[in-house]
Design a protein that fits this description.
TIM Barrel; 11 strands; two-stranded antiparallel ribbon; alpha/beta
Length: about 250
C-alpha cells in the first residue's frame, strides 16, 4: 500500500486545488490513500478549510483522510475543541500545525509552533492517539517532543524548509534524540544520502512518505524514495506500512 502522508487542498497564490485534482495526481503515482490538510485552515481559518476538507472526505471515503489544521495555538480552547469536532464529525486522523515565516528574505518565524499555547493542542492529540504533522524546525520539533513525550510529532519536510535552513542533518539528530519524532520525506531538498543517513540513525520505522502535493511534484518525491539505496523492506515501511500502523488502517472496518 502506498500512502501519501502530506498533501493539501485549497487556494494559494491565486490558484485553487480541489480534492478531485489531488486524487487524480495521487492516481498518477499509484497512491492508495492520501492524507490532506486544507490551506485555509493552516494559515487563517480554524473552521472554513477544515469543514470543506471534511466534506471532501465524505465524497471520497477511505481514500482521502484529513488532518485538522490548527492555524495557531493562541486560539486557546477553541483549537482543542476544533480537534474534537472534526475528528468526531468527519473522522479526521491527525492534526497539522505550522510555523509561519515572515518572508523569503526574512525566514525567521513570525509564528512558531514551539510556544506554550500549542502545548494543550499537542497534549490533546496524545490523548486521542493522533499524529501531529508539524511544519517546524528540528529545534521546534524537539521542543514539542520533550514537553509532550506521549505525542507523535512528524517533522514535515525533514528540515528542508526556509525556517530550518534546509538542515536535514539536524533534523535527523533531533529524531535520534527524541523517539517520538518522525521524519516526513516531502522536501524540495533532494541531497544524496538523506534517507540512507536517516535510516542509519533512527531506522526506517520512523520515516513517512509524503509529497506536499500540489506545492511539490509528487513524481519527484516518489522517485527520491524509489531511487534511494534502501532494502525492499525499509522502502515498504516508508511508503506506507509505517503510516498504516500509526493510523490503524488495518483495524478500520
Amino acid at each position: 500500500m502506498l500512502i501519501d502522508g502530506h498533501t493539501h487542498i485549497g487556494r494559494l497564490h491565486g490558484w485553487r486545488w480541489e480534492a478531485e485534482l489531488l486524487l487524480a495526481s495521487a492516481d498518477e503515482i499509484g497512491a492508495d490513500v492520501v492524507l490532506c490538510s486544507h490551506l485555509a485552515s493552516i494559515f487563517y481559518s480554524l473552521d472554513d478549510g477544515n469543514r470543506e476538507l471534511g466534506e471532501a472526505m465524505r465524497d471520497h471515503p477511505g481514500r482521502l483522510l484529513g488532518y485538522v489544521a490548527i492555524p495557531s495555538g493562541r486560539l486557546g480552547p477553541a483549537a482543542v475543541e476544533a480537534i474534537d469536532r472534526y475528528v468526531g464529525e468527519y473522522g479526521m486522523v491527525g492534526v497539522k500545525i505550522y510555523s509561519t515565516p515572515r518572508a523569503k528574505a526574512r525566514p525567521e518565524r513570525l509564528l512558531s509552533v514551539a510556544e506554550p499555547g500549542m502545548l494543550p493542542v499537542v497534549e490533546h492529540t496524545a490523548t486521542l492517539h493522533l499524529p501531529v504533522l508539524a511544519h517546524a524546525t528540528p529545534d521546534e520539533s524537539a521542543w514539542l517532543a520533550e514537553r509532550v513525550p506521549e505525542a507523535t510529532i512528524v517533522m514535515a519536510h525533514m528540515g528542508g524548509t526556509a525556517i530550518a535552513e534546509g538542515d536535514w542533518v539536524r533534523a535527523i539528530d533531533a529524531a535520534a534524540a527524541w523517539p517520538n519524532v518522525y521524519l516526513d520525506t516531502a522536501s524540495s531538498t533532494v541531497d544524496a544520502g538523506m534517507l540512507e543517513l536517516a535510516i542509519e540513525a533512527i531506522g526506517a520505522e520512523r520515516i513517512l512518505f509524503g509529497t506536499d502535493t500540489p506545492l511539490l511534484d509528487p513524481h519527484a518525491q516518489l522517485a527520491r524514495v524509489i531511487g534511494a539505496d534502501l532494502t525492499d523492506s525499509d522502502r515498504a515501511l516508508i511508503l506506507g506500512e509505517n503510516l498504516a500502523r500509526l493510523l490503524g488502517l488495518g483495524e478500520r472496518p
